[in-house]
Amino acid sequence: MPLIIEQDNDGTTARLNLVGELDTDTAPQLRPVIEGLAGQPPSVLVLRLKDLDYISSAGLRCVFQMKKLMKEHGGRFVVSEPSPQVRKVFDIVKAVPVQSVFSSEAELDAYLDKMQRQVGSD
Q1: Dihedral sign for Cα atoms in the order 41, 16, 23, 28
Q2: Which of 37, 57, 86, 116 has the highest CB neighbour count under 10 A?
Q3: What is the domain range of residue 76?
């Protein structure tokens, strides 16, 4: 199955929605997107995985690259709505800290709202 990458970037928050499978064959499609983010890293990178049916070790390497990129630039990396099978893989390899995984868009939006309000009050 192919990988579809949907992007939205408002300058502060970048959202990547992955649809299909992220494996050895499709991971190369994601690498230029990651490199593009490195040029102007957002404050928050949201990786939405609701429609990702499968992730392999090559896919996990891409996730780790994104996580590392955001850490290096002082940004936040969060995962939104991982499919049950992808969440199981994350649980097994401890790929993403539990506090960075959100089960719904509403939960993620509430978190982002809270985070932005904290920055605004500093």
Answers
A1: negative
A2: 86
A3: 3-121
